[in-house]
Design goal:
The protein has 4 helices and 7 strands; from the N terminus they run αββαββααβββ. It is α+β, with helices and mostly antiparallel strands. Strands 1, 2, 3, 4, 5, 6 and 7 form a 7-stranded mixed β-sheet that branches. Strand 3 and strand 4 (about 80) form a beta hairpin.
């Protein structure tokens, strides 16, 4: 019953579009290089698959984070979502391999978040956006922190989603 009341809050909220709140001119290039954490998991060709490192330090670290955190590949597909991603997907296994933009109910928001991801990956700067995301009847208003990551020559994107959902206490 509580989940329905949270959804009702979103359906009555007219601010559902993605809003980029970072000013890219004020940001410097800040790609985080994680190569030393994955030295044994990166092939000589530079290919990398986080799913093959299921018990690695980095995955355990992300799983311990109590807010949704996702790693995206260069095509913006989700290659890893931590346990907290259940807040936006119901079951994080449902989003594995999906395009990140599909977590946004509005097609306009899907296009806008792709633009944000493009800026992050190509300009190597962190950005922040806000919007409503979730699958099916699960919805969350979130502040979406997006950072570029690099593991050897493989470029990835880290997305951390801060829950801004209004409380339905009352």
């Amino acid at each position: 019953m509580k989940e329905e009341s949270r959804l009702d809050v979103f359906l009555s909220d007219d601010r559902q579009s993605i809003t980029e709140i970072s000013d890219p001119q004020s940001l410097s290039e800040e790609t985080i290089d994680l190569s030393t954490l994955f030295i044994n998991d990166v092939s000589s060709s530079g290919s990398f698959d986080l799913r093959q490192s299921q018990f690695g330090f980095f995955q355990k670290f992300l799983d311990a984070v109590p807010i949704p955190a996702l790693l995206l590949n260069e095509s913006y597909q989700i290659v890893f979502g931590n346990r907290a991603c259940n807040k936006i997907a119901g079951d994080r296994a449902r989003i594995d391999g999906s395009r990140f933009a599909l977590l946004f109910p509005s097609s306009a928001d899907q296009k806008q978040i792709e633009k944000v991801l493009d800026k992050v990956l190509h300009n190597r700067i962190p950005l922040i956006a806000e919007g409503v995301l979730g699958l099916d009847r699960v919805r969350m208003r979130g502040r979406i922190h997006v950072r570029p990551l690099r593991i050897k020559s493989v470029r990835t994107v880290l997305v951390v989603i801060e829950d801004l959902t209004p409380s339905s206490k009352g």
